[in-house]
Write a structure and sequence with these properties.
- The structure is a single chain.
- By secondary structure, the chain is mainly α.
- Helices cover about 65% and strands about 5% of the residues.
- It has a two-stranded antiparallel sheet with strand order 1-2.
- The longest helix has about 35 residues.
- It is globular, with a radius of gyration of 24 Å.
């Protein structure tokens, strides 16, 4: 309501601004989420927080070990594989106090890891039983985590008129800075749902690296774009396309048809 507030903020001015905004025909309203969507959204938020916590634990362990001259590769698997030797090798440079601290962090890491796995299993079960999730999981690059996040965010997609509106809401379209008839398109706007944009880009990156492009109609488009643009541009463009296809599948209630989707694109 901020653009419609005329003077200092108070209850009367806020009410007047709300009344004026509601009367605008081009005003967009946020649809009310169902209980199922709220439950899915809660699972994703808790899981995302646990993933961030796991990363923080790993970084703290690396920092403590680096101070004692013990360096591990950046991959989490390398650090996890070396934790047994770190805690049980009496010849390393760790003091008893530091070894105890590392042990506490290692136990916390394993606990958080198990919690993440439990929530991931729960998302996979929901994705396998929900009709909307099953339909959009047929799209290359969209797995159970991305599918449940999309359904939790937009439901059947009725809040958007077209797929491009959904992609714009996610911040996957170019940011525009135009003046005097001179149009300039910059990088993506990065607006809207940060979490959903992040996991969509992760799914697009996995699809760009692992998909058998000669078996899917989208493969020709990917090859043509990769020939003239960097890999990250391809990944973001792929995420944009996945979002638009997912909206089309949800809004129509039909199954994913690769040939028809690519012809429309």
């Amino acid at each position: 309501m901020k653009p419609f507030v005329k003077s200092n903020k108070n209850d009367f001015v806020d009410t007047e601004a709300i009344a004026e905004a509601v009367e605008r025909k081009n005003m967009r309203f946020v649809p009310i989420k169902t209980d199922g969507q709220l439950d899915l959204q809660a699972i994703h938020r808790v899981r995302d927080r646990l993933v961030s916590r796991r990363t923080a634990i790993m970084n703290q362990i690396r920092a403590f070990l680096l101070e004692r001259g013990m360096v591990f590769a950046q991959k989490p698997a390398k650090l996890k594989a070396g934790m047994t030797d770190v805690l049980e090798n009496a010849d390393n440079a760790l003091t008893p106090m530091m070894r105890n601290m590392i042990g506490i962090l290692w136990d916390e890491w394993k606990t958080v890891e198990q919690q993440i796995e439990d929530l991931t299993d729960k998302l996979e079960q929901i994705a396998a039983s929900d009709a909307d999730c099953c339909r959009i999981r047929q799209i290359p690059g969209i797995g159970p985590i991305v599918a449940t996040a999309i359904v939790a965010a937009i439901g059947d997609g009725a809040a958007f008129r077209k797929g491009r509106d959904f992609a714009a809401w996610l911040g996957l379209v170019p940011r525009q800075y135009s003046t005097g008839g001179n149009a300039r398109l910059l990088g993506i706007s990065k607006r809207g749902n940060i979490y959903l944009r992040k996991i969509l880009i992760h799914g697009a990156r996995a699809a760009a690296m692992r998909i058998k492009r000669d078996r899917f109609p989208i493969g020709a488009w990917m090859n043509a774009l990769e020939a003239r643009a960097p890999r990250n541009v391809l990944v973001v463009a792929m995420a944009n396309k996945l979002a638009r296809i997912a909206w089309a599948v949800l809004s129509t209630g039909e199954d994913y048809r690769p040939t028809a989707s690519m012809a429309a694109a």
